Amino acid sequence: MTTRTQTKGDADLDLGITRAPKSATETRSQQPALSGERKARVDAILKDGIDPHVHSGPSIAPRALDHLDLVRQMSDAGFAAVVTKDHDYAGVATAALIKKHHPELHTKIFSGIVLNNVVGGINPYAVEHTAAMGGKIVWMPTLAAENHLRWEKAATFAHPASTQKMRPASPVPVLDANKRVLDCVKDVLDVIAKNDMVLASGHLHVSETWLVFEEAQRRGVKRLIFTHPEDIVDATLNDVRGVAAMGAMVEHSLAFFLDGSKFKTRSAKELRQLIEAAGTDSTIICSDLGQTGVFSPLEGFRLGVALCMELGYQDEEIHKMVSTNAARVLGLDSLVSS
Ligand SMILES: [Zn+2]
């Protein structure tokens, strides 16, 4: 396709190399609180918010809050929905329990499945089960992605979902040696299409995401999320433009951008470049938070909205990126007032 650009050399943003320096002043405690009027504006923008990618626990990785804590916090802030993501298990059963026993909570909780080793890698049975339980998102491999295992060797930070208590991840490929999408992946794509679920790219290398997304669309998948092009997946701004042009939502993780986040690797300017590449109609913002020693998902969203305001975005544009765009790609339009 014409929009496709995989040449690393033509990146107009050096997303593979630029690392924001960690300064001693970048600590959570020194983060200025939002003042009155500004806070009210941020809160209004976040009404009907959706966090489509959040790491509440329980998990083998240290988590600062569990799924129920999360839904309680987000309900207080008027969020419409959250989609929990654990690297090792589908959170659909937990979501069902919370939905049943806490009808008073405003925020609806959903989950999905990440196709890492614990669920058998590219396992259509596990995906069908997740679909049958109301799962929303199927993430391609993350910690077990071949790209992730390569990235990890050179990474400047340790990915928090450590497998210290388990055998290390073994690679889950999605392409064969000739760069063709594997049959088992096609099988999973068919399940996603049949159930109208969302396919998210996880930690695939961007060159794999292109091929898997194209195959997904050929097989009838309508809902695509390009997971954090800003880190791990080696994407350029041209990739972001192109993947958005094919109809995918481009998702940015606040954890990588917020001052004071221990995962910060990107600058505000880079966030703006990434948003501009896809456009505000094709961009969604997730917290990707829930870990210990960093902002809570809700704090992250508040700071993220304030950051977008500083970058010059209008309130309506920011609201799209934190609410209605995610509602659209997740099929949750009825939960948000447009
Ligand atoms: Zn994540």
Question: Main traits of this protein?
Answer:
single chain; 338 residues; alpha/beta; 6-stranded parallel sheet; 3-stranded parallel sheet; 37% helix; binds zinc ion
Bound molecules: zinc ion
Give the N-terminus to C-terminus distance in angstroms.
Answer: 33 Å
Radius of gyration: 18 Å
Strand content: 5-15%
Number of helices: 11
Shape: globular
How would you spell out the order of helices and strands? HEHEHEEHEHHEHEHEHEHH
The largest β sheet comes out as: 6 strands, parallel
Spatial arrangement of strands, main beta sheet:
4-5-6-7-8-9
Oligomeric state:
single chain
Mean pLDDT: 91
Uncertain runs: 1-30
Structure classification: alpha/beta
Number of strands: 9
Q: State the share of residues found in helices, binned by percent.
A: 25-40%
3D architecture notes:
The protein is 37% helix and 10% strand. The protein is built from eleven helices and nine strands. Strands 4-5-6-7-8-9 form a six-stranded parallel beta sheet. It has a three-stranded parallel beta sheet with strand order 1-2-3. The model is unreliable at 1-30 (pLDDT under 50). The site of zinc ion has 4 residues, from loops.
Outline the secondary-structure elements.
Elements: H1 36-46, E1 50-54, H2 67-76, E2 81-84, H3 92-101, E3 108-110, E4 112-114, H4 124-132, E5 137-139, H5 146-154, H6 183-194, E6 198-200, H7 206-218, E7 223-226, H8 237-245, E8 249-253, H9 268-278, E9 283-286, H10 297-310, H11 315-330
Parallel strand pairs: 1-2, 2-3, 4-5, 5-6, 6-7, 7-8, 8-9
Helix pairs in contact: 1-10, 1-11, 4-6, 8-9
The structure holds zinc ion (ZN).
Zinc ion is lined by residues 53, 55, 85, 288.
